[in-house]
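Fold it.
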Amino acid sequence: MAGQVSWISRGVGAADSWFASSPMTDFQIAWVSPAEPREPVNYVRTGPDTAMPIRFRASIALAVPDAAVTIEVFTGADMRPRINELVIRSSVQKPITTSVLRQVLVDQLLRAAVKEAEVPVDSLSAGTVLGTQPVPATGKADEDASIAARIYREAVASGNPAPAMAVASSMGRSRAQVARYIRKARQMGLLPEL
């Protein structure tokens, strides 16, 4: 059921206490619930054939640390998904402490939630996907703009704060050239207008 949390239990030894410091362990996600879209239900493209809800809630069970997290994700006009609400629950045996909070990697939670929230565009109702239908590439400039748009969308979906720089780095182009590719991609409908 959506919204319910399943705990992953591990034994608690005598050395565990509120004040005992434990060494930093790996961060591990056990599972991510399917996204629960929030009203109004609109989607934004994350790829040529995929989209995610503009606003959704996801529940994530962590194996390490032993906790459950619920996040609400919102994608703004800049096309970057952001967490605007985060709730952490812990088991009774392992209370939430500063050490536990330091182990929770928020950027990985966001990436996992976005990946789980992606759905095929053709499974959505007409008019719920924002942006225009992509125009097929017709030449070298169009091809480069398509590649730049794909890299840009992937960077945005992964929470990268500088998607244009990710395009420049991936394509080995200057920022000015990337700006032209992004402008062309917006004209082709591969990226939404700002």
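Helices lie at 98-103, 106-117, 140-157, 163-171, 175-188.
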